[in-house]
Amino acid sequence: MENGYVAVDTDGRVTGVAADLASLGVNVSEPCRKSNGEDVEIVDFGDRLLIPAMNDLHVHASQYRNQGIAMDLELLPWLQKYTFPEEMKYADTGYAERMYRRFVRDLWRFGTMRACVFATSHTESTRLLMHLFQEAGMGALVGKVAMNRNCPEGLSESVEEMLQGYEELIAEFNNPEALVRPIVTPRFVPSCTPEMLRACGELAAKYRLPVQSHLSENKDELALVQTLESIWYGAAYNRYGLFGQTPTVMAHCVYTRGKELRLMKRNDVMVAHCPTSNLNVASGMAPIRQFLDEGLRVGLGSDISGGHDLNIFRVMVYAIQVSKMHFLRNHARPFLTLPEVFWMATKSAGSFFGKVGSFEPGYEFDALVIDDSDLNHDHYSLLERLERYIYLGDDRQIVHRFCRGNEIIM
Amino acid sequence: MENGYVAVDTDGRVTGVAADLASLGVNVSEPCRKSNGEDVEIVDFGDRLLIPAMNDLHVHASQYRNQGIAMDLELLPWLQKYTFPEEMKYADTGYAERMYRRFVRDLWRFGTMRACVFATSHTESTRLLMHLFQEAGMGALVGKVAMNRNCPEGLSESVEEMLQGYEELIAEFNNPEALVRPIVTPRFVPSCTPEMLRACGELAAKYRLPVQSHLSENKDELALVQTLESIWYGAAYNRYGLFGQTPTVMAHCVYTRGKELRLMKRNDVMVAHCPTSNLNVASGMAPIRQFLDEGLRVGLGSDISGGHDLNIFRVMVYAIQVSKMHFLRNHARPFLTLPEVFWMATKSAGSFFGKVGSFEPGYEFDALVIDDSDLNHDHYSLLERLERYIYLGDDRQIVHRFCRGNEIIM
Asked: Which residue of chain B has the CA closest to A389?
């Protein structure tokens, strides 16, 4: 809408969008009042773009230091030489604070106001990360990572330690209305014994907590899960109550087909599509058009540091491009369009956090104001301006960021 | 090299690289002198990265306005609705100047000091673009685009008009030592009658001018060329003296195999690999590992506006990712590594412009100074710093730019 208005209530929820103030029930006078007599503050963003803020459905905060390095390695040496040694450093809360502060600030910089985050297995630095999100006023589901096999000693916890850590975090943070909440986070099936997975599922059920993990990213991983659990990947999570019994998001789903796809649909398990990571890690490209055709819910994830870019606008571009590679092989399924990936990053991903990601009435006002004057140097339509910002812009053009109605300033 | 020195002569050529001044024959005294008594100016860039500047082997300056829009369209409607109408505007030199100034400045911003550029068929605005490069002090091979079929009237020229325009530009610019020179530019076989192609080849031979065009990007295009010329694509260019008879660079080469590949090798025709464009236009992914194995010379191109990003560092990342998609299908050919794509964007692409793209003795000093302090927040190795800059950095970190020994300031 050109030169429109978004009306936001004092509790941070959108009450309407319109081309003129009168249709929002506002009398333009000094001071402005609504028809019921309430004062109205009007903020004029001029010719800037006002869009819903970004949501990142899959990101490893604890791999922030490794963002953009070791991309020439394959998955296994990358995990062993870079990922696990890095995560072990988070036993030190001083180190964690230094990295996590930068991480939260960078999310903010790129306009991501909500994220599903993997921390590490360390309870204290996970708590610290949650405090940093609280301080910032941004939304996050933060996961202490449960893992007790196929990993270095320093990252492994017993089931009891895992539960104890979660109980502490839950006691402090589990307000269903809060912006920052815990999310049950088994790393993935190969890292967790059946006892660990069962305990995670029970924890999620007990406190009605959401769940996140990784699913069907890589063919070797699929075979390994089959060996460990004697069943297919999604069914393994499902067996332990980690597959939609509470709201669940699974990252990657590159090889999700048939039974697994149908179970995700039936259980309303959401897909965190990480196209940048798909290309960097070279494990395969998730068939998102097929997922959408089948009615799965899909959002986007940056997957730092398998993905290299925290900027969800860039991830949108990659989502289109990965989809075009599917299209190249099979012209029967059209590639994803800009409006579709924009929707995936906003309203679709936002649904995992509540009524988030749209300016429809009742939605929380998470928004970005974009000053694209340096990109808008000729006669561009509104849609072209948005497309140019998505393809060419960066954090420099984001001039205001709102989460749940509050401007977030750092 | 950590804390090294690059020695540059007064004519802008590198004379050596060393870890200490003494091995470069410099006595560190006030004022600094070389052993032969000449004064030496020493510039200390501290902890910054000093690397060769970027070279872009394929970019359409005249599609600058369309950068980052209409990406949801397929090739044909995109050409008809966006590309051709846009290029027709360059009949107006006022419009051309407004766009070309921004274009040259953006190349500069992202650290590209040399480029092979497509202008349009309009002689006057092509001349203007060449003047803008001259003013800037940057290197460019600029092509007035020859085309006389399958295109709108406003872009079509007769063979005589084409030749007349080129003669004017050559008279003004054809100094083999100059930074800015003309390059013979038939748009591609489908846009040029045999007479036009023959005239282009004769022109290149007459003035020993380099040649650029498009090759084997898309399967429909291949079939069309076969119909028009009754021969395969590369052979059609070769027939007219446009395939290595003078230095030649061909963009895309997605479907170049067998005979065409061997002819390119034999004639030393260079490949401009445009991975961003490969993904956006969804015509296919060029098999670069195969080209390197066969001994072809390969550089990188941004291909604005089929590609959306003018930043060659981003194009490097895409080159690795596209290569990983080939690797995914066939593990027998390893994917391109960071050092390889860095070499492609510097020394390999630079070879099309002369001794450009390296700090070896005798090379022209084209260089970037990168202040990566905001990305270098932990203990990273030199190679990791370079990798992080390539994956995460942008124009903000480029603090000095040199072309042929001169600092280029805008």
From this structure: B68
